[in-house]
Write a structure and sequence with these properties.
The protein is mainly alpha-helical. Helix content is 66%, strand content 0%. It has one domain (19-153). The protein has helices at residues 20-43, 49-57, 65-84, 97-113, 118-127, 131-153. α2 (49-57) crosses α3 and α5 crosses α6.
C-alpha cells in the first residue's frame, strides 16, 4: 500500500551545528592522545610532562637533547598559538604575577607529591591500565570538584 501523503520537514542549519568549544576539546584531546602514542611507539617513552621537565633539572648523560626538544616544542607551540589566535589564549585577568607564580609553585608541588601530572597519569597511565594512575586521576578530579564547590559556597566567581 502506497502512502497517501507525506510531510516534508525543513530544518534550519543551526539545528545541526555542534558547539565549537566541544569540537576544539575533541580535537585537542585527540592530538594529545596521538602525541602520547607516537612518543610511546617512536621513542619508547611516556609523555608525562613533569617527568620530562624534571629530567632537565637532574639530567643524565645522553638524555638531555630529546627533553630539550620536547619542552622547546611545547613552548614554541604555545607561542605560535598565542600569535595566531590571541583571543583563544586566556590571560589571568585580575591576578597579579605573584599570585600566578604562587599557583604555579603549588601545581609543581602537587605534581611531585602525586608522582606525576595529569598528562602522565590521566593520558599515559590510564592507557597502560596503571592502578596508581587511576587513583591519581580520580584524586585530581575529586580535588577539582571539591575546590570548585568550596569556592562557590564562599561566593567566588
Amino acid at each position: 500500500m502506497a502512502p497517501t501523503s507525506f510531510r516534508l520537514v525543513v530544518r534550519r542549519e543551526e539545528d545541526y551545528v555542534i558547539p565549537i568549544d566541544w569540537i576544539h576539546a575533541l580535537l585537542g584531546g585527540g592530538l594529545i592522545g596521538l602525541a602520547a602514542s607516537l612518543m610511546m611507539w617512536g621513542a619508547g617513552r611516556i609523555a608525562g610532562i613533569s617527568g620530562i621537565f624534571g629530567g632537565l633539572l637532574s639530567p643524565s648523560a645522553g638524555d638531555i637533547a630529546w627533553r630539550v626538544a620536547f619542552v622547546g616544542g611545547l613552548l614554541a607551540s604555545g607561542l605560535a598559538a598565542t600569535l595566531a589566535f590571541p583571543a583563544a589564549i586566556a590571560s589571568p585577568e585580575g591576578r597579579s604575577v605573584v599570585e600566578v607564580g604562587i599557583a604555579g609553585l603549588l601545581v609543581g608541588f602537587g605534581v611531585r607529591l602525586g608522582s606525576g601530572c595529569t598528562s602522565g597519569h590521566g593520558v599515559c597511565g590510564l592507557s597502560r591500565f596503571s592502578r596508581r594512575s587511576l587513583v591519581a586521576t580520580l584524586m585530581f578530579i575529586a580535588t577539582g570538584v571539591l575546590t570548585v564547590t568550596v569556592l562557590r559556597v564562599l561566593g567566588a566567581p
